[in-house]
């Protein structure tokens, strides 16, 4: 691991304190006492390094852990509210609905993990020379279809892997067929049906198309629970983000990876060679 800046190291330690004591009541004043900064300094530096408001982050973590316990179905709403430092079930339900859009009971009945934020962690990735705080979302997505151009690629860990050449080639083929299609762009990596050679099937396409053709295949992506990480930077550095996601974040999380369809989701007008471009990678998981 490379040397962290003093600020990043201090914020990383503060996050560890927050996560270890998430059931306790904690104010910005309490958290400032754990750092070397005043309340104003801590809030400014936390916002700068995480792009998050400190008080809002603590509340989101409390509500996300509470949502997990609701779905586990072993505790009453009142007990969960008190466990995470809310004064009453009423105040907890109000905060829960504001964050998730549903009251605790309705969220539990729906049964899907939506809007849950895993604890923020430090990405210290020597492959991409990246050091930043990163937050992973946990979401269940319904089944959907992707229409696109398919081909075979080497997996991430094949020596002299060809995916950095094959994947852009498949996207060029797709855009030649649909030059104006910029919405719903999705790359799908099939880790269920691995070839004897170790190669994977990859589909470059869109969720917004509705018809297959001689050039396009239709893949049915089933309902799945995902861990979702954002990648900011050049698209050729995505492999380093995925490597960190699988080898560092996943083993330390509360989740287990499963075979399925990994997704690359690109926003409209995505610029793959822009250092500020951001897309999301979806990793199939189970609790």
Automatic annotation (TrEMBL):
SMART domains linked: AraC_E_bind, HTH_ARAC
- Top-level taxon in the UniProt lineage: Bacteria
Q: Indicate the segments forming the HTH araC/xylS-type domain, all copies.
A: 12-110
The residue ranges crossing the membrane are none
Q: Which UniProt keywords apply?
A: DNA-binding, Transcription, Transcription regulation
Answer yes or no on keyword ATP-binding.
no
Gene Ontology MF terms in the entry: DNA-binding transcription factor activity; sequence-specific DNA binding
Q: Which Gene3D superfamilies match?
A: Homeodomain-like, Regulatory factor, effector binding domain
Instruction: Say yes or no: keyword Nucleotide-binding present.
Output: no
Q: What is this protein called?
A: Transcriptional regulator
């Amino acid at each position: 691991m490379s040397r962290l800046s003093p600020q990043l190291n201090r914020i990383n330690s503060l996050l560890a304190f927050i996560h270890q004591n998430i059931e306790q009541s904690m104010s910005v004043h309490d958290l400032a006492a754990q750092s070397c900064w005043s309340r104003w300094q801590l809030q400014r530096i936390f916002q700068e390094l995480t792009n998050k408001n400190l008080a809002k982050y603590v509340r989101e973590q409390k509500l996300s852990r509470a949502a997990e316990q609701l779905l586990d179905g072993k505790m009453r709403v009142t007990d969960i509210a008190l466990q995470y430092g809310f004064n009453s079930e009423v105040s907890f339900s109000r905060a829960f609905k504001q964050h998730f859009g549903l009251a605790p009971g309705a969220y539990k009945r729906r049964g899907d993990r939506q809007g849950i934020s895993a604890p923020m962690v430090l990405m210290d990735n020597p492959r991409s020379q990246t050091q930043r705080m990163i937050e992973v979302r946990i979401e269940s997505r319904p089944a959907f279809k992707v229409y696109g151009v398919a081909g075979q690629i080497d997996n991430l860990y094949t020596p002299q892997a060809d995916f950095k050449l094959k994947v852009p080639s498949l996207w060029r083929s797709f855009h030649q067929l649909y030059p104006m299609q910029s919405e719903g762009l999705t790359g799908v990596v099939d880790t269920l049906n691995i070839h004897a050679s170790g190669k994977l099937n990859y589909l470059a396409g869109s969720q917004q198309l509705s018809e297959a053709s001689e050039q396009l295949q239709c893949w049915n992506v089933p309902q799945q629970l995902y861990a979702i990480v954002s990648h900011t930077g050049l698209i050729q550095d995505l492999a380093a983000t995925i490597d960190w996601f699988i080898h560092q974040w996943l083993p330390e999380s509360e989740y287990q990876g499963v075979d399925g369809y990994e997704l690359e989701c690109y926003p409209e007008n995505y610029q793959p060679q822009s250092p500020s471009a951001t897309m999301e990678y979806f990793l199939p998981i189970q609790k």
